[in-house]
Amino acid sequence: MLLSRLKEGILIADGAMGTMLQERGLGKGKCPEEWNISHREEVQAIHRAYLEAGCHLILTNTFGGNQFKLKKFGLEDRLHELNIAGAKIAREAIEKFSAPSAGTCRVASGDRNNGRNECHPYVLGDVGPTGEFMEPVGLVKREEFYRVFKKQILALIEGEVDAIIIETMSSLEECQAAIQAAKENNNLPVIVSMSFDPGERGFRTMMGVDIPTVVKGLSETGADVIGANCGRVSLEEMAEVIKEMRTLTDKPLMAQPNAGRPRLIEGRTVYEQSPEGIASEVKALVQAGANIIGGCCGTTPEHMAKIVKAVRAL
Ligand SMILES: [Zn+2]
Description:
Layout: H1 2-8, E1 11-12, H2 18-23, H3 35-38, H4 40-52, E2 57-59, H5 67-72, H6 79-97, E3 112-113, E4 116-117, E5 122-127, H7 142-158, E6 163-169, H8 172-183, E7 190-194, H9 211-221, E8 225-229, H10 235-248, E9 253-256, E10 263-265, E11 268-270, H11 275-279, H12 282-288, E12 292-293, H13 301-313
This protein binds zinc ion.
Zinc ion (ZN) binds next to loops.
């Protein structure tokens, strides 16, 4: 399974989904998860590109597949359908397009787990933030967050994901509600990744949570893998975040940097780090203690292919 695979070596997760969907025509203000039904082939083509780049972990196109976010598109009644479809598209992409010898897998082929080759990639059911705030900062009760996450996670499990990834989080309480919803309702591994920004008082999430508090809070709630993704950090700073986490825990760590620090140009957020540039930082991430390396905003299959190559070379 995924957690034992992590003991064999570094695993590579995929890169961005959102920016790739936009490139394929997803309009501004449109629901990305709806494409799991209406543009199934487009979503699967993105998974395919990441699999062919050698990625071991494929995230479902369900980042905003929670009730709060779907409601904004009038799609909350289709939550179940959209999440299951997201999981199935990723699973089918692996069956059709994965090359078992790709990437850095060192497990001898033929080792089997749940009928699947150990070297086959895994489907991670993607759970993003709700966009709402918990009491007392906001109006939503903790139980409500739990209920909302449980609904999405159960749908992803029904779609047969291999693990749950809770990512791009900035509120520890929201994260913990999601972890509990995952852990209390199934026994799949749970990866939890929060987003950090640099500041005078060290790295903090947008909600002001520091790294020691994050590591302690996530560990106590049962996260199997802890990580950092996205955020206004450069690649060097992402390595610093992982390094600090490594001093605080023995759990596997995941780093999913953006393609460089985001820059605002003419009202548009751009990520300018080239595939070569991001790959050159891979060593620093590994030395800092990362066990899974993926990509966030602005990363493409080209970035991930270079990262796979860089990890193999280490
Ligand atoms: Zn991002």
